[in-house]
């Protein structure tokens, strides 16, 4: 609502006199005026350091705790020393893991997620042999699993072997943004390769891999702080190339990935297929890089080499996907007026719908929905200004939340109805995550510290009443 002072000009005794008449104006935004908001946010962390949720799966299985990392403003994950959790009701903070020998060069910890069923967490851990010459890097890290019932015995999930001859089932560099599958038996991640890093940027391409837990791998060479065995069998599942063909489905970069469904998606023959959805960078016929939505089917057995080369790679090529992986492109926007997709792509729990961001006919970022089987995308939102984040799904598979207009919006994916749940504010929320029971949304805000004036990521929560869902 605005108050407008409207000038009215009259003549009095031959002189012009101006009167200002107050007029109250209301306006409708996207056809929906909303001035009252049903929920209030609660800040649950306050200490002057970062409590980064980082767009991960931060809720504990019982929905009572949020796990986060403590990366620094200047140094990021490289200087992250601890993994902590906070109780959403009592605000109690518990340190789950502290990195040994933490310094300016590493090892670094961050990007933590909870197991969906058990009190276990998975996070990035930098190599322990960090130094000034070899600090924490994208290709010098691995997945660390900690069982809260046995926190003093952390477990390396993905084996690492960067010395030729390489070991099948092990990787050669850095895994990142680890995510448990719905049953907790698999871990998905993005990846950069240390062997290719030595060859230069053109060859050091980001891609996607998985680890199948409870299938341990022992490396062929000697274990040390840079080469070590792991608790699972790992493989890269997306093939990338430094020189994709213009107009082809080849990609030079793969990221922004997540699991499709809690238990995969249903194929036309009725069987369930394990898969990850992601954004892959293709080269248009005009030789421009464009991010498109892709999906990759993942075989149950990761030990059989595929047609493109050895699972462990060579000194000249990346590790190659196992037999049975199938990489498919789902969107084709390169010839549209506003090409490309964005956001971390997310599937509903049933695995029938993948949500992502793309631009509408006016060049505005909106939420779109796509079947993992491939089809015409469906535009979910039609706002006058851009959606500001990727979506998070309610466990009912019918509602999503995301950022828009510096507020949090919940939308019904069936009828497209939507509601804001908090008033627009600065600094805007970020890194939304929805609890397993759908009753809590958590997020970060960067809040200035009263003493230092520096801003740190603090955690806020909103407790949701199901009766309010649109």
Automatic annotation (TrEMBL):
<protein>
    <recommendedName>
        <fullName>DUF3748 domain-containing protein</fullName>
    </recommendedName>
</protein>
<dbReference type="Pfam" id="PF12566">
    <property type="entry name" value="DUF3748"/>
</dbReference>
<dbReference type="InterPro" id="IPR011042">
    <property type="entry name" value="6-blade_b-propeller_TolB-like"/>
</dbReference>
<dbReference type="InterPro" id="IPR022223">
    <property type="entry name" value="DUF3748"/>
</dbReference>
């Amino acid at each position: 609502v605005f108050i407008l002072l409207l000038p009215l000009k009259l003549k009095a005794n031959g002189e012009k006199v101006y009167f200002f008449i107050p007029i109250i104006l209301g306006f409708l935004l996207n056809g929906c005026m909303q001035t009252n908001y049903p929920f209030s946010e609660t800040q649950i962390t306050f200490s002057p350091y970062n409590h980064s949720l980082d767009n991960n799966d931060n809720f504990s299985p019982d929905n009572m705790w949020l796990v986060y990392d403590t990366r620094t403003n200047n140094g990021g994950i490289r200087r992250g020393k601890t993994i902590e959790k906070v109780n959403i009701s009592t605000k109690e903070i518990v340190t789950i893991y502290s990195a040994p020998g933490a310094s300016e060069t590493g090892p670094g910890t961050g990007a933590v997620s909870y197991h969906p069923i058990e009190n276990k967490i998975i996070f990035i851990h930098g190599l322990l042999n960090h130094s000034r010459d070899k600090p924490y890097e994208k290709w010098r890290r691995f997945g660390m699993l900690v069982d809260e019932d046995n926190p003093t015995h952390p477990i390396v999930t993905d084996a690492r072997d960067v010395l030729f001859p390489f070991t099948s089932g092990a990787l050669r560099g850095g895994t990142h943004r680890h995510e448990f599958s719905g049953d907790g038996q698999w871990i998905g991640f993005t990846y950069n390769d240390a062997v290719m890093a030595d060859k230069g940027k053109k060859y050091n391409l980001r891609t996607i891999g998985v680890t199948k837990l409870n299938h341990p791998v022992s490396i062929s060479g000697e274990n040390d702080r840079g080469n070590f065995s792991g608790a699972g069998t790992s493989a890269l599942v997306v093939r990338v190339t430094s020189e994709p063909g213009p107009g082809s489905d080849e990609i030079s970069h793969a990221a922004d990935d997540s699991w499709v469904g809690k238990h995969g998606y249903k194929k036309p023959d009725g069987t369930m297929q394990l898969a990850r959805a992601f954004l892959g960078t293709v080269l248009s016929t005009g030789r421009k890089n464009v991010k498109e939505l892709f999906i990759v089917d993942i075989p149950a057995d990761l030990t059989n080499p595929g047609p493109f080369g050895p699972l462990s790679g060579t000194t000249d090529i990346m590790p190659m996907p196992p037999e049975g992986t199938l990489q498919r492109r789902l969107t084709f926007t390169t010839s549209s007026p506003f090409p490309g997709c964005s956001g971390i792509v997310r599937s509903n729990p049933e695995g029938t719908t993948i949500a992502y961001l793309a631009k509408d006919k006016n060049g505005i970022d909106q939420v779109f929905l796509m079947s993992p089987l491939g089809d015409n995308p469906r535009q979910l939102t039609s706002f006058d200004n851009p959606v500001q984040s990727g979506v998070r799904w309610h466990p009912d598979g019918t509602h999503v939340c995301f950022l828009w207009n510096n507020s949090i919006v919940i939308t019904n994916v069936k009828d497209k109805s939507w509601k804001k749940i908090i008033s627009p504010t600065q600094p805007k929320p970020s890194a939304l995550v929805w609890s397993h029971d759908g009753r809590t949304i958590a997020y970060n805000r960067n809040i200035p510290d009263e003493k230092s004036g520096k801003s740190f990521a603090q955690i806020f929560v909103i407790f949701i009443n199901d009766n309010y869902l649109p």
